[in-house]
Amino acid sequence: MGRLVVIEGLDGAGKRTLTEALTKALRNLGRSVTTLAFPRYGESVHADLVREALHRGHGDLADSVYGMGLLYALDRRGARDVIANDMALSDFVLLDRYVASNAAYGAARLHQDAHGEFVRWVRELEIARFGLPVPDAQILLRVSPEVAAERAERRAKADADRAKDAFESDDDLQVRCARVYDQLAAGAWLSRWHVVDGTAGSDATELARLLVHPG
């Protein structure tokens, strides 16, 4: 079975860029790589409902932390077999966002920390009940909320399809979410975490070596 590696971080942290760089670095080391990003907009009805709710569709759905958390979880539940198949065929499966995103953002919205009820609920729902595979490693691409917000703003101006949603527009939420992410990484939630400085620029080659030869 291939190794499941997740890249996490705030909106605007640069997860897509790191995914692409890490994919190239792992392939340069002779490893096969498959990638997948969540939410699966355009592929999953649950993901599309999330996007619509975040842009003020479906009444007050976006106000329900547990309701949104369930939609995110159902999107991943729908991809469970895809992930398992990719792990059977590839040395590495890289995911842009996964279960920890749900835990971090939901906890932050409820003003809870990584030890609170929402994080426990996410783990019980997605891992225990839905049977999603546990990551072998998770990467926290850490940037300050200010830098992440600036990048998200630039991205929204450059790409009409990536307009900022309700979560991305909430600066206080991003600050709280960054704090929860730090706690999840420090506590090795679900697996070992690698914390990468997203402001200075990540060394994808060194990160690939760490993943191929974990110490």
TrEMBL record:
Top-rank EC class of the record's enzyme: transferase
Keyword Nucleotide-binding applies: yes
One GO molecular-function entry: ATP binding
BP GO terms, sorted: dTDP biosynthetic process; dTTP biosynthetic process; dUDP biosynthetic process
Catalytic activity annotation: dTMP + ATP = dTDP + ADP
Function (record text): Phosphorylation of dTMP to form dTDP in both de novo and salvage pathways of dTTP synthesis.
Family statement drawn from the similarity comment of this UniProt entry: Belongs to the thymidylate kinase family.
UniProt name for this protein: Thymidylate kinase
Organism: Amycolatopsis acidiphila
Classification lineage: Bacteria, Bacillati, Actinomycetota, Actinomycetes, Pseudonocardiales
Gene that encodes it: tmk
